[in-house]
Amino acid sequence: MIVMTLEAVPPSLRGELSRWLLEVQPGVYVGNATALVRDLLWDKAVQHVGTGRCAQLYRASNEQGFAVRLHGDPRRRVVSLDGFQLVAVRNARHAELQGEYDPPEDDDKL
């Protein structure tokens, strides 16, 4: 089984995925496909996502029973911890303290 989510992507990409998977909610696709088709769909999504985001979850032979791929959201990344895949979300406040984040200026303070 495959689950893909798309956010802020071109309509053509959504149409392409709907040929292979069922769109159960706007931007949420579910279906069954071979590993080859799954990987080709992922490659197509990554190539055409533009400034949007995409995620893919699929069945895998591991403790969790599934694997996760993410693309397009720099605040989220997949990390492996003791064989488990987790999604790490970058904390904007922590990044600011580390000098990696430049908060937008507040016009009210000018």
UniProtKB/TrEMBL annotation:
This is Type I-E CRISPR-associated endoribonuclease Cas2e. It comes from the Bacteria. Pfam families: Cas_Cas2CT1978 (PF09707). It comes from Deinococcus petrolearius.
